[in-house]
What we know:
The chain has two helices and five strands; from the N terminus they run αβββαββ. Strands 1-2-3-5-4 form a five-stranded antiparallel beta sheet, covered by helices on one side. It has helices spanning 6-12, 59-75, and strands at 19-22, 26-30, 38-44, 82-85, 101-105. The longest helix is centred in the middle third of the chain and has 17 residues, at 59-75. Strand 1 (19-22) and strand 2 form a beta hairpin. 2'-deoxyguanosine-5'-monophosphate is lined by residues 6, 15, 17, 29-33, 41, 87, 93-96.
Amino acid sequence: MDETCLFCKIIAGEISSDKVYEDETVVAFRDINPQASTHVLVVPRKHIPRIVDATEDDSALLGEVAYRAAQIARKEGVGDSFRMVVNNGADAGQSVFHVHFHILGGRRMGWPPG
Ligand code: DGP
């Protein structure tokens, strides 16, 4: 755990959140500022600041987070149409530096993303 990391504090329960899933590796909770009717953040418990910081040893973990994110989308009722987004770096829109997969669903998505 990184003591300065917001998502580490959410994972540890030190900051409250609307959790929709958790297991020994992955935690998922609703985004505080939803950009669609379904907007869930799926995170590994392990603190990895950006996806580019992951090592080869993390590859299975990231696969598990992505798999779990898709299952959560299905459980949320948006399994047939959702977007999975990972922002990497401030210029790409990353504001919390603990890897997270956004699951957005329940509305039509534009392309390319802004
Ligand atoms: P990103 O910009 O890709 O780093 O996404 C970070 C997301 O985290 C953003 O959509 C808003 C969300 N967020 C920020 N602070 C909190 C919080 O305290 N609780 C919850 N549930 N979500 C948060």
